[in-house]
Design brief:
about 325 residues; alpha+beta; Aminopeptidase; 2 domains; eleven-stranded mixed sheet; about 30% strand
Length: about 325
Amino acid sequence: MAAGQAAGGAIVVQPRRGTRSVSAGALRLQIGARTIASIPRRLRRIGLSLDEALAGSAPALPPLASGEDGYLVTSLPEAAGVDWRGVRFERQRYTRYYVDLEAGEAAWRAGLSGQTRSTLKRKARKLAAESGGTLDVRRYRTPGEIGDFHPVARALAETTYQERLMGAGLPGDAGAVQRMIAQAGEDQVRAWLLYVRGEPAAYLWCGADGDTLRYDYVGHDPELAALSPGSVLMEAALGDLFADRFARFDFTEGEGQHKRGMASAGVACRDLLLLRPTLANRAAVSLVGGFDAAMRVAKRAAAAPALQGIAKRVRRA
């Protein structure tokens, strides 16, 4: 998937991170990853790269074109302000996690918690036992290799929750494949497949942004979830990257337990929705904000033992 995900509400179609682009997006009313309603909006996405987030400065907002409703600014450093006099709505706050590859693998592993190191070793041993005693990790970076990688990873992506619930699996259209192969020709791609018992179990596709490699698309076979193939593949990929040319591995926008566990550092960020000051936009933001607040209350209530069974049934519905 495009790896970052908002806690609920506004998400636009995610282009390459660090870009400026216009997307036909929506304000979404969500329960977890499930969208129950949406309010269409045409947004200019201002996605800050990791370097820009670390620099701590606010981006310049280009003029909106006719028909554009506003901006979605992602990974804005918490200390940075944006000059905007229209409707302003904070979508989420999070730490944008990354791995400092220049520090070396030994320093990275030493920085992991003892529990994380133990868990990674246990998961790797368990999965290796299913594959004859060794992990079957395959690596791809050249145009020809990416051409081989894509159909296997795409077939795997179609089975994942990222694809089914969010439409955020590895792209499969011809144009996307051509772009991926072209990026590989410029040494801007690293990709991996993990096989279990001779069958693909997990994939990871990462694009480069200068000397930073991004965590762009990831997924695993849901039938093998108990073996944690995604975590095992992520550890193997990071092990490769310490000997590569990149300075950082960027876990991109959004929180996640696996990001927190494997990162060596992070920068505090927020996502802002900036809309034209119309009555329709004010009403839409009020609706989404009220819904999100209600979901937070419901989530706290659902933590009560008497309601946990009901919450599980709602999520499965």
